[in-house]
Amino acid sequence: MYYGEIKNCDIANGIGVRVTLFVSGCTNHCEHCFQPETWDFHYGQPFTEETEETVLRLLEPAYINGLTLLGGEPFEPENQRALLPFLRRVRAERPEKTIWAYSGFTLEELRQEGGHPRCEVTDDVLNLVDVLVDGRFVEAKKDISLRFRGSSNQRIIDLKKTRAAGEVILWDEA
Fold first, then answer.
1. Could you tell me the end-to-end alpha-carbon distance of the chain, in angstroms, rounded to an integer?
2. For a 10 Å CB count at each end of the chain, is N or C smaller?
3. C-alpha span between 85 and 79 (Å, rounded)
4. What are phi and psi of 86, to 5 degrees?
């Protein structure tokens, strides 16, 4: 897996101050994507063990609320496979931090047997994520007043509550 950028002080992509990893590779190709260069699966630099160590170190300070995964597309199957062991490390070494993930795929698409992007590790990856912002960016539904998303079709899903309830529960800041 490759990544385009790591931000160590991001306040736009989840609650609080976050470390943000922009992975490379995306097949969605949303019109007016804010980072079309990340569609290329080899954009940026390889995600190595040293990269993992850097991100884990950036997550150390108490003022950092957690990790956010963006893209590109974290839920492309090849990215999921690379992210799974890393996310397990984050959970083991930084259990107090939350994990947010952005995906152009909906939760339903991620769960659909036999469909792209579902693969053998999708459920494991989803089980490590606290909040999923799902759905493709749609220019016609763009709304700059929305918090943590670009268009009104996108949902902010509380995956912990969703797993417990067995149905989609939207994230509520309260």
1. 35
2. C
3. 11
4. -65, -45
pLDDT tens for each residue of 73-101:
999 999 999 999 999 999 999 999 999 99
pLDDT at 112 > cutoff 80: yes
- Token pair for 93: 């070494």
Contacts of residues 164-171 at CB distance under 8 Å and 24 or more positions apart, as own/partner, are 168/107, 171/131
Q: Are 3 and 23 in contact (CB under 8 A)?
A: yes
What pLDDT was estimated at residue 173? 73
Task: Choose between 157 and 34: higher pLDDT.
Answer: 157
Question: 């990544």: which residue's tokens?
Answer: 3
User: Locate tokens 């797993």: which residue?
Assistant: 163
Which tokens is 138 given? 């749609």
Three-class secondary structure of residue 86 per DSSP: helix
Kindly give the residue spans of alpha helices, DSSP state H, lying in 21-138: 49-58, 77-93, 107-111, 122-128
DSSP string, 43-72: SSEE--HHHHHHHHHHT-STTEEEEEEESS
